[in-house]
């Protein structure tokens, strides 16, 4: 039986350099997979405390390098990105479900440049985004109307599901002109894209279809093949819904932040008309809440790249073909870089330097390596502006119109200090909350009445 040895540098210039430190022993076939939990970002934090901010693992026969500091992020994603780290790593699920032709995963080169230009110039340019603003406003009003109806009837609503309907309907109508029929596939895609098959890392299994993982891929292909071929929607649906779900949970658990946000909305917009997307530029605290949510709950807690050319990083040789993992979740909660990192504190991102300090100047565009919720460099998410604007608009609208009372184990809404949302995570590409946010809405403004009569 063949076991891939620890790689050594191919070029003479790098041959004297060591590989990043690695746990011992490395087991046959599985490598270091036995060290990983389903929530991989937590496993990587535990290992980095022992082996340092850069270390190596073997996922089966796949050499893997883990980076857990902003200094290393900059070396990988800025200094060496153009030559060595310009391509994303694909799991077998992504390859099969997108016919190895995913917009998000296409290797760096002329075709990628063409696709990127098409997306930025034709789909996400300012004119197109502005033209579709009424559509986005209409989809937000649908969510608000559902909650208003439940508030009037004093009945629970699954807010998590409503958020997924909202993002799915908005993106798919913008891109495809269809909505409800692909909501289920959006969730299934993002769930399986965040999982791994043994065949991803153990090379003798690559030609085999192993276990339920491969059967689930076949089922998705069989049921939704026409939709999966148009894969652009999968990048924008679940991630925005999950981030908004986390934001609402944080607001429920932090009534001080909620009260301050509501005061801002009432001062700027009032109670008689609904929030519009154009109002967001005048709501700095709402924008700060969005940033703080992406800091504590990044859509991609672990960003992945593939090393396409051997190079040196921080005194170590990084082998060609290696999977590179950037533990964004760890850095964004590290007390070295953030004051009170486990506290939900939007004030840190206010543009007023006196209140926010240095963090007030940090944006989400991948230029500040302590905050990379959308990645960085050539392969960062191109829809960051659209995602943050839509999320801010919906959050401001919900804050203006409703309080959310979490439904407890007995089926009754929790009140006062007992009204808290679970912050437990579950595995997935976007790491959503483990339990859906089921709440009884309580109307807070006169605009809610207009929703019911419209």
UniProtKB/TrEMBL annotation:
UniProt region (Disordered), positions on chain: 1-23
Regarding the membrane, this protein is recorded as:
Single-pass membrane protein
Q: Which UniProt keywords apply?
A: Heme, Iron, Membrane, Metal-binding, Monooxygenase, Oxidoreductase, Transmembrane, Transmembrane helix
Question: Which species expresses this protein natively?
Answer: Arachis hypogaea
Q: Per the record, a Pfam family? A: p450
Q: Which cofactor does it need?
A: heme
SUPFAM superfamilies hit by this protein: Cytochrome P450
Q: What is its main location?
A: membrane
Q: Which GO terms describe its cellular component?
A: membrane
Q: Is Iron-sulfur found in the keyword set?
A: no
User: Which amino acids does the record list as binding heme?
Assistant: 381
Name the family: Belongs to the cytochrome P450 family.
Example GO molecular function term? monooxygenase activity
Return the protein name.
Answer: Isoflavone synthase
């Amino acid at each position: 039986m063949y076991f891939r040895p620890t790689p050594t540098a191919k070029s003479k210039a790098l041959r004297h350099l060591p590989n990043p430190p690695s746990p011992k022993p490395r087991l046959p076939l599985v490598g270091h997979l036995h060290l990983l939990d389903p929530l991989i970002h937590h496993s990587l934090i535990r290992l980095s405390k022992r082996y340092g901010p850069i270390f190596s693992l073997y996922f089966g026969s796949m050499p893997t390098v883990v980076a857990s500091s902003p200094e290393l992020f900059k070396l990988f994603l800025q200094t060496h990105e153009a030559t060595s780290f310009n391509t994303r790593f694909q799991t077998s699920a992504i390859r099969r479900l997108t016919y190895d032709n995913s917009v998000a995963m296409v290797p760096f080169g002329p075709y990628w440049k063409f696709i990127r230009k098409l997306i930025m110039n034709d789909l996400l340019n300012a004119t197109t985004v502005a033209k579709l603003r009424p559509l986005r406003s209409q989809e937000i009003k649908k969510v608000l109307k559902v909650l208003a109806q439940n508030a009037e009837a004093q009945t629970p609503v699954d807010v998590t599901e409503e958020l997924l309907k909202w993002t799915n309907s908005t993106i798919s109508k913008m891109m495809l002109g269809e909505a409800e029929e692909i909501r289920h596939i959006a969730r299934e895609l993002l769930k399986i894209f965040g999982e791994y098959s043994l065949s991803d890392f153990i090379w003798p299994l690559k030609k085999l279809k192993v276990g339920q993982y491969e059967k689930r891929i076949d089922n998705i292909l069989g049921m939704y093949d026409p939709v999966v071929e148009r894969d652009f929607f999968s990048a924008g649906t679940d991630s925005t819904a999950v981030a908004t779900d986390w934001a609402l949970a944080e607001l429920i658990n932090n009534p001080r932040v909620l009260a301050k946000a509501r005061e801002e909305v009432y001062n700027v917009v009032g109670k008689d008309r609904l929030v519009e997307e154009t109002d967001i530029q005048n709501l700095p605290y709402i924008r700060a809440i969005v940033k703080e949510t992406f800091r504590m709950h990044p859509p991609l807690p672990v960003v992945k790249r593939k090393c396409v050319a051997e190079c040196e990083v921080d005194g170590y040789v990084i082998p060609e073909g290696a999977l590179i993992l950037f533990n964004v979740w760890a850095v964004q909660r590290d007390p070295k870089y953030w004051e009170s990192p486990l506290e939900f504190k939007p004030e840190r991102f206010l543009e007023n330097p006196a209140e926010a300090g240095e963090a007030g100047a940090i944006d989400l565009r991948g230029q500040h390596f302590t905050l990379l919720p959308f990645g960085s460099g050539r392969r960062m998410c191109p829809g960051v502006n659209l995602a943050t604007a839509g999320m801010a608009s919906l959050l401001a609208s919900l804050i203006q119109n409703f309080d959310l009372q979490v439904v407890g184990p007995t089926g009754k809404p929790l009140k006062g200090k007992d009204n808290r949302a679970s912050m437990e995570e579950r595995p997935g590409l976007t790491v959503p909350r483990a339990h859906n946010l089921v709440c009884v809405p309580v109307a807070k403004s006169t605009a809610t009445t207009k929703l019911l009569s419209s």
